[in-house]
């Protein structure tokens, strides 16, 4: 504690003698016009000085006037408020001591450890940070379905607290153009929204252009995205160009990757799908072809949403040369498509009609496409010949969700190491 200022009575008061002043000297000090105040290094030192003053001046035996004088002296010297000085004096009167109260504040025990936060960061890194409900579903599956004990606590986490953990310092320390369609007058496909009526096999398709090479303007590859409306089973492919000659073999390969029979083929009005080659292919497979209606963006909204959340998120926007179409298509078949359908939960829509006939869509269920397919009424009836639900479930159970995501990420890193350096 240090002494600041001097009194009008020209007395040098030292710190260790300030509590020993007589009542007359204290009265002269308070009457001084110039303020003198001690500054303590901490609260413990300040409270100790107040205690020594009260003991030295025998506060308990003083009369009312002397007590008031001592109170004002303590206020002036310490800078404490009148209410705080009153509390300290009351504490001294009751116990004979002036010490700081030790508080034991209520603290809830931490349920999720540092290891849990690091594990969540690992899962988000592998799955590229899905939404909270989808991530929670993955954590549940890792523990319940794949029996990984390290997910025991995270398997019961709420969505709200999952976001809290994502804001922790340790979590942050651990964490990495659509082609304009041309109008066509070809009368192929019916302009209407497909009605699957809860039956899988009605696909929504769209193309995503990977951009042009800066400077030369050379065209990049094209991604073909196909999503089943009911189960959200998704198959992605890649082609050098979207001409009929390139598109037909890729479409045949993609359609064979769906485990159920294809009943509907819906796209926008782009010429890559609305042409005689695709129409002939679908006619051969006895698949109904429909196309989006004018000013009805929701007709193909599902696959367009997947374009951003799947293709753009995993592949990005940078230019990729056409020579990379085959390696990327192979990556899709071997790694990304299995991950999407067996291990990545999707938000499933529950549609309700209220009393006024208005449609309300709520997303409360997060399931993988395989889980959604399994929960349909008699799902075996929709599968292709030679496919079985148990075989699909064995494929999903062969590797956990996060292990599949990490395997896919390693394959993607290996795939892009050389192309992106030469692009």
Structure, explained:
The protein has 423 residues and is α/β, with parallel strands linked by helices. It has three domains: 2-95, no CATH class; 114-174, no CATH class; 190-422, Nucleotidyltransferase, domain 5 (2-Layer Sandwich). Helix content is 44%, strand content 13%. The chain is built from 15 helices and ten strands. The chain has a six-stranded mixed β-sheet with strand order 3-8-7-4-5-6, with helices on both faces. A hairpin with a 5-residue loop joins strand 5 and strand 6. Helix 1 crosses helix 3 (64-78), helix 3 (64-78) packs across helix 4 and helix 6 (132-144) packs across helix 7. It is elongated and about 115 Å long. The two termini are 69 Å apart. The model is unreliable at 1-16, 176-180 and 419-423 (pLDDT under 50).
Fold topology:
Layout: E1 2-4, H1 23-31, E2 37-39, H2 43-56, H3 64-78, H4 82-95, H5 114-127, H6 132-144, H7 159-166, H8 169-174, E3 190-191, E4 202-209, E5 222-228, E6 234-239, H9 244-256, E7 264-267, H10 276-284, E8 288-291, H11 301-315, H12 325-342, E9 346-353, E10 359-367, H13 369-374, H14 389-397, H15 401-422
Parallel strand pairs: 3-8, 4-7, 7-8
Antiparallel strand pairs: 1-2, 4-5, 5-6, 9-10
Helix pairs in contact: 1-3, 3-4, 5-15, 6-7, 12-15
